[in-house]
Amino acid sequence: MSNRRYKKQERHDQILLELKLKPHVRVADLARQFGVTTETVRRDIEDLGRDGLLQRAHGGASARHAGSHRDLDERRHERVAERERLGRFAASLVTEGTSIMVDAGATTMEFARALAFQQTRVTVITNSVQVAMILGQSPATSVRLTPGDYLPREAAVIGTETCDYLAGYNVDACFIGAAGLSDTGVSEAVAGFASVKRAMMRQSANHHFLMDASKFGRTHLEQVVRLDDIGTLISDQRPEKPLSDALRARKVRVLVA
């Protein structure tokens, strides 16, 4: 048992470091290493699992590899308070009479709920069935759902037909999410999502990326855009170095909810 007293954040950092070096860690081994109870380590693993930073497994935890992604139904139960706060803040930026594009995702669903609640008069074009259903409940919102190939696990449509439909509109802004943000840019784990996001950006005068802090430093298979093209990043906290320096160098506007 270690003589050193590890703080909670130090334990979290060490667990993630261990998972970079090996595919699986055991609760009992970590408890001995940190000099804490197994219950404390299980709570640490639960916290990191909720943030999507590892995969909980029997007796311990496994690494969540780059490019792995949970379905929408699983993601929407993670970091709920952070995404709700982020969504409310982003919705406050939408002014009366504007037109926007909104893509599919757990965070944009929270944005849609906040927008519906404040009943801003707005036209919304989306590829998300969930976003369309949420905003469709607001009498102030005009909703247009894109055609395309349906992805049941994401409740969204994608494909050439989707992008062609988006190309027929010009809007004031887009509000889109993504699975990862690193110094290489914004990346996406769901096949087909990146092209829809880029199509929305091409038709929008202003770009707003909604990403909570758990996405920082993560890179997935499909590149969406490089940092230069982000526009505005809206998050629940400010990125740390070196990502913050890279964003500043590319003149990305960062807003914290």
TrEMBL record:
Residues 56-76 are annotated as: Disordered. Keywords: DNA-binding, Transcription, Transcription regulation. SMART domains: DeoRC (SM01134), HTH_DEOR (SM00420). PROSITE patterns: HTH_DEOR_1, HTH_DEOR_2. Residues 56-65 have a biased composition (Low complexity). It holds the Pfam family DeoRC. Residues 8-63 form the HTH deoR-type domain. PANTHER family: AGA OPERON TRANSCRIPTIONAL REPRESSOR-RELATED, HTH-TYPE TRANSCRIPTIONAL REGULATOR SRLR-RELATED. This is DeoR family transcriptional regulator. It comes from Aliiroseovarius zhejiangensis.
